[in-house]
Amino acid sequence: MRISGKTAVVTGGSDGIGLEIARHLKAAGAGVIVVGRDPGRLAAALAEGFDTIAGDLSNAAGCDALVGALAGRPIDILVNNAGMGATFDVNAPFDLAEIDRCIYLNVNAPIRLIAGLLDGLRARPEAMIVNVTSGLAIAPSAKGPVYCGTKAGLRSFTMALRAQLAGTRVHVLEALPPVVETRMTEANPHNKMPAPECGRQIVAAMQAGRKQANVGMTALLNAVYNVSPAIARRVMIRY
């Protein structure tokens, strides 16, 4: 896809991977609308030259409000990047409300935004939906069952959506990052990919028209999984 001249919406775009995707899209000539919740980070994004929309996508009202705010605007690219983790440990207390927010933000919100914006995307000469899942969508880790489950669900949805939109002007890309250096992964002891490089690789995959972007070490995980799903699962369940 030629990025220059396109208008992109990036959810969770005021921080982490989303902000780096937005920066690389802007550098490639796109007009970028950054969606986020934190007023300070949105103000910083506005100062960088992005359009911004404040929104909480962890509930139906927030998703519908974003679709309404975008009504009438020619959107060529939708990047569903917003996401969160939630603790679920059978040996410790957990917050069911937080788990519900995680499931909604990671799975329901992308589906709801696609449903609300699809007619507009189909009307564009060339359009793209980018769903950011995770290497953990390929094989889960016992440390994050809810997060892994939501990303695996979004991965399956993305594959089926791509098949439904085959032959149309709407291209569907799944981006699968490894562990990336963001606020969400501060407590993760593993080596982390710098967020700018992750964003660069995702936008490069968009420009190349790829169906799947296995970013960083996710490429190795995907290769192992293709040879032996059992080995990939055994390795990652302890990750």
| Spatial strand sequence of the major β-sheet | 3-2-1-4-5-6-9
Shape: globular
Approximate strand percentage? 15-25%
Q: What is the number of E strands?
A: 9
Distance between the termini: 35 Å
Element order: H for helix, E for strand = EHEHEHEHEHEEEHEHH
Explain this structure to me?
With 239 residues, this protein is of the alpha/beta class. It has a single domain, classed as NAD(P)-binding Rossmann-like Domain (Rossmann fold, 3-Layer(aba) Sandwich), CATH 3.40.50.720. The chain has 8 helices and 9 strands. The chain has helices at residues 16-27, 39-47, 60-69, 96-123, 145-164, 195-208, 218-227, 229-237; strands spanning 7-11, 31-36, 51-54, 77-80, 127-132, 170-176, 180-181, 193-194, 212-214. The strands form 2 sheets. The chain has a 7-stranded parallel sheet with strand order 3-2-1-4-5-6-9, with helices on both faces. Strands 7-8 form a two-stranded parallel sheet. Helix 5 links the parallel strand 5 and strand 6 (170-176). Helix 1 (16-27) packs across helix 6 (195-208). The longest helix is centred in the middle third of the chain and has 28 residues, at 96-123. It starts with 6 loop residues before the first strand and ends with a helix. The model has no long low-confidence stretch (mean pLDDT 95).
What attributes characterize this protein structure?
8 helices; Rossmann fold; alpha/beta; 239 residues
